[in-house]
Design brief:
The structure holds 3 protein chains of 3 kinds. Chain A is of the alpha/beta class. Chain A contains 18 helices and 20 strands. Chain A has 4 domains: 182 residues, Rossmann fold (3-Layer(aba) Sandwich), CATH 3.40.50.300; 68 residues, no CATH class; 172 residues, P-loop containing nucleotide triphosphate hydrolases (Rossmann fold); 74 residues, no CATH class. Chain A has a 6-stranded mixed beta sheet with strand order 6-7-8-3-9-10, with helices on both faces. Chain A has a 6-stranded mixed beta sheet with strand order 16-17-18-13-19-20, with helices on both faces. In chain B, α1 packs across α13, α2 crosses α3 and α5 runs antiparallel to α6. Chain B has a domain of 226 residues. By secondary structure, chain B is mostly helical. Chain C has a single domain, classed as ABC transporter involved in vitamin B12 uptake, BtuC, CATH 1.10.3470. The chains are: A alpha/beta, B mainly alpha, C mainly alpha. Chains B and C meet through α5, α6, α11 and α13 of B and α3, α4, α9, α11 and α12 of C.
Chain lengths: 532, 345, 297
Amino acid sequence: MNSGSVAPPAWQCRAMTVAYGDFIALDGIDVGFERGRIHAVVGQNGAGKTTFARAIAGIVRPRQGQILVDGLEIEPGKVRAARDAGVELVHQSFALPPSFTIAEAMEFGTRKHGQLFTASGLARRWTQHLAELDVTADVRSRIRDLPVETQQGVEIARALVTEADLLILDEPTAVLSPSGVERLFERVRRLKARGVTVILILHKIREVLAIADTVTVLRGGRLVAAGLARQALDPVALSDLIIGGPAAQGAEAAVGLAAGAPAEHAVARQTAAIEPIARLEDITTEGRAEAPALDHASVALHAGEILGVAGVEGNGQRSLVEALCGLAKLKEGRIMMGGRDISREDLGERRKQGLRVIPFERNSEGLSLSSALWENWAASRLLAGPLLSYIRPQRLRAQARAAFDRWSVRYAGPSQPAGALSGGNAQKVIFSRELDGQVRLIIAAQPTRGLDIGATAFVWKALREARDTGAAVLMISSDLDELFDTADRLIVMLSGRVVAEFRPPYDMARVGAAMTGAVTEALSEPLTGARP
Amino acid sequence: MSATLTILLRTAIFILVALALCGLIFQAAGYSALDMFASILDGAFLRKGGLSQCLRWALPLFITATGVVLSFRCGFFNIGAQGQFYMGAIAATAMASWLNGMPVAVLVPVSILSGMAGGALWALWPGILRFRWGTDEVITTLMGNFIAGLILVYVTTGPLKDPSGSGQQSSSKPLAAAYRISNSMGLSPTIIAISLVVGIGMWLLINRTAFGVLGGLAGRNPEMLRWQGARMWKFGLASFMVSGALAGLAGAIEVFGPNGRLVGGFLPTHGFTAVLIALVANLSITGTAVAALFFGGLASAALYLPIMAGLPSAAIDIINAAIALFITAKSRMIDRMFSARGKTP
Amino acid sequence: MIDFIVAVLRSGTPLVYVALAGMIAQRAGLWHLGLEGIMIIGCCATIIGIVLTGSYALAILIACVLCILASMLLWFVIEKLKANPIIAGLGLTGFGVGGTALAAQSIFGSQAAVTAPFGAPRLGDSFGAFASLSIFVAAMPAVVALLWVLLRRTRFGLQLAACGEHPFAARSLGIDPERIRLFALCVGGVLCAIGGAELASGSLQIFAQNMTAGRGFMGFAAVVFGAAHPVWTALAALFFSLVGAIGIRAQILFGDAVPHDLLLALPYLATVLGVWISGRLRGGAKGANGFSELRDY
């Protein structure tokens, strides 16, 4: 396992165990990282990668074990100690106060200069810093106004305000377009040339093999392989390590092996001739910081079709879902469903016409974690009736139990709080609530995010079954492989517009180019969703 | 079940902590804490007639607190019960003086209903500000309390002033004895019946209607309910108005019952105590009934202390405040202690 | 006119100090509804301190120490016991109001107002029309400027704001939001003590039960109105007292035609208006809203 050097690795974890309550997130990890190289730490969702990164950075306190830097132990669970030792972490979901300017965000984490500053001095200081790192942005602009890629650049620049020796990037590629990933990797290689050691937390094999010098694999909180040389690895061997044993069915796609290869069911279906179930016509919405506006977007949704929405996160997908649900204000355009203009109807009325939604955030928008399962389940049907109607909780609990059993939810009882369920089971509860009654249009926003392979397969199966019974499905995902695998048709969103449309077999290069706006109209087929 | 037990024990422990802190304060201020607590216990429950006095204070508090429970459950931090209580009392008194001379069967119900309407309307404007413009209801309802207090002083020194009254205390003309729903001891079958109806009605509303279940979801996670297609303003305005109406009802009861007239600046801590009761009860109606008895006892002790024991009634305010300080505390240590015990090995 | 300015400064200065206390807490991420209680402790401690020690400096010191202790109690309950800041703050307010009444009664044996032989040092004749104002009025602009520098032009100020806006970001850089909030509340305690001292001894040298009469809550409203910016918050507080002074002026001009009690309500109405406007400007309520024990997140 050791790559042959004589000196001990500069950073070392010894028998590190991290637990949250009863849950063991990391179990006795022994691993070392050598100076001046790019190390990848890979694993599935829930393998403990983020916990690993946070433990090294001192944000999470290990229950046992040591962290050593150049042979000296640093105090565990102390960010200060880790930063003194030159460790900096860039979080997956960025962690800078959104109202701060870039300069302020740089300043508040540094310890280099005196306490007092002037506005212009601050700007000068950090403009230079950003320039050194090739981040092009005005240091006076606010964090919340930055595009995702710039924000990540700023986060990395923030991590380098002190002389960091070890930079840990937690899932940095999740929010980037394919070309953004390329630029990130360029930046990482330049940092390596400057002598910075980088640990990249990744979960896509393609990316690991493109950048890493060594590969460390975590599975279920345990160390499976430490410091493998990239040259010694091929994709299949690595995926076996990540998943454990020869890849299970459906697993290939989940770890990104299926790049570009159309799966068996993703064949072009004949749908264009049928009148769509729902149609967004030239929609423009009012944007918000967390949900950029739609800009004259037109989408048609057909019965018996899964329409995939690809795009880098933050390009209007959330506004698209909110517009369909009546939760976003329309500035222009209209939404037709079943031949009627429903633009002015609210979500409750749209639900009565067969609209169902699996929201982006399972734990906040999908479920009330502190409420009982039966209450979560009963919410939609209670809302459909009069508010002052008499209810029998006993009967609702029995009905919920029957529904959960149909969807093979694993749970203790209907009065259990929803927060006690695992991600996959929680998603099943949402499906059992949403795919109930007369369903005509299902919006599934990131339905498999954070789920393991089994639950992912379950979600795909449920959506396909709904499609086969004649419902229209709109599936938003940031995982292209997932979309290639499930979507019957694919649209690409960029800056709130629908910029391209594809049918299977999909071509990774062309979809990726459309996502970044490198090439537009020319490479896509005519937009069937466009205004007639 | 163990969750309920944990909450109960946690509540009990923090109330004890609060009382201990009060004991320290009393001792530091030069009173004997033991004497103080003994006198409070005596004044609240043990003395002759103590229980009926405890009930006299507990019932209006219970009525206001059930309304607070509803709005807190729905996730709206309506801490304006005091102002709604005052406006209810004012509206009821105004209606009664306008209808003066009418038969009892007309005047009393109409006045009490208008008291409820007054409370509901005073809760309505913060609700509208909240749902139309997103104005924070904590500040608006709080300011509403001060404004209502000043309106009360204004009407009792102006429009509704008792011309024969002494200069000492501003108050309205006393109601004719026939219109009163209780004597000045403040306990009567009418008041008990109203409280029972409110208690049962609110229990049904919260536990046995779609509104109650959905309101609970709205309070714990409004986002989730929004994605279910709920019109949040419906829950908001309804819970604001119901809680305002109940506080107004309590105000009307105070006027038509024990007080027999409107007094400037009367019961200035009624609303805050009702908020406390709702929190101590962990927002359950049955718990509210129990907690109302406890705080009703304290309220009756506040009157007893200076007269019978020669101790300052501020002691009761301090106890209430200390309980408020600690009642929402969550100690991970205590939770772990009890949840471990509740688990089967 | 100059009388009017003096009146606004006199009634506005305690409000500015207490609003600044709330502002620091707000920036550090706490809704400070205990201002009222801490302020009245400041009032009471100052007057009793003057009476018992005969030294104004000692009295202020006692007031500061007691207000810091009360702030630390609030901090402990909110940060360590995870209590709801709004309810705990209201509790502390009741604690302060009741406790000061009890203290005054036990020391002086009656519920009547307590007067001190002398009050805060005055500016003196060299200030002309402003001679009767206390030194705290003159110090106020300096305090506002100092806080502006501390909060907007030092790294510590950025760290404090980060704790309020994104505690996770602060924590992952090794900044402890709990400690920063303790600092914020303690500085707030000193400011409340000064505000209370100014209210009790700036002109009248008197302590009466419940004498703060909602000024703490009005200070809190000024924080919301002023978007927790040091200068804007101070201006909002002065605006509230300006409205109050206009009300009194109107009373003098129009007599009983304008009901006195309704004029007293003007600052509260202005507060509601201010919160409404700031809500409209910044798109809705944000902050420690709601009853967190029942919330999912």
